[in-house]
């Protein structure tokens, strides 16, 4: 008898949900209607001056920007010893436009990717999109061979946006 009831219940579950019947215990509390919807490719502003075409990557923990001419003031031999020191660098967008910047190195990140393992400097940068402006640690990397010179990771998206893959 119980097995028969389970079979009938399994047959009617899709029908019940299709009718839009509301079950409070099945509500998805994790959906936040205040989050902005972002497409996988967007335009971002760096420090309110540099415009970049960016790839949104929920698989990437951190944000990465195309940087060249990276020079640490009074550089030590190991990257970890340079944390807290001033670093000068030039960011370059997909159009080849360049902006020279200088920041304090906040940390060094170990990044694993298809090329292997590499270490990168992190610096605080203000990144903006659609009235969301955040200062986050961004890692500096030569992305010259990559289509997108800015890769936006979960650190920037956290609690404010959801990705719409159909856009």
From TrEMBL:
It holds the Pfam family Zn_protease. This is Uncharacterized conserved protein. SUPFAM superfamilies: Acid proteases. Residues 42-164 form the Retropepsin-like aspartic endopeptidase domain. Gene3D superfamilies: Acid Proteases. It comes from the Bacteria.
């Amino acid at each position: 008898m119980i097995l028969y009831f389970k079979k009938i219940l399994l047959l009617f579950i899709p029908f019940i949900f299709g009718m839009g019947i509301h079950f409070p215990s099945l509500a998805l509390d994790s959906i936040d209607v205040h989050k902005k919807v972002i497409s996988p490719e967007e335009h971002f502003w760096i420090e309110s001056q540099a415009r970049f075409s960016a790839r949104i990557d929920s698989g990437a923990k951190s944000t990465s920007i195309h940087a060249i001419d990276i020079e640490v003031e009074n550089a030590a031999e190991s990257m970890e010893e340079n944390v807290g020191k001033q670093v000068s660098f030039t960011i370059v967008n997909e159009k080849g436009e360049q902006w020279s910047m200088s920041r304090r190195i906040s940390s060094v990140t170990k990044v694993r990717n298809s090329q292997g393992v590499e270490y990168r400097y992190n610096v605080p940068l203000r990144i903006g999109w659609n009235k969301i402006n955040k200062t986050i640690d961004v890692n500096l990397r030569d992305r010259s061979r990559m289509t997108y010179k800015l890769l936006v990771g979960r650190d920037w998206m956290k609690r404010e946006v959801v990705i719409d893959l159909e856009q």
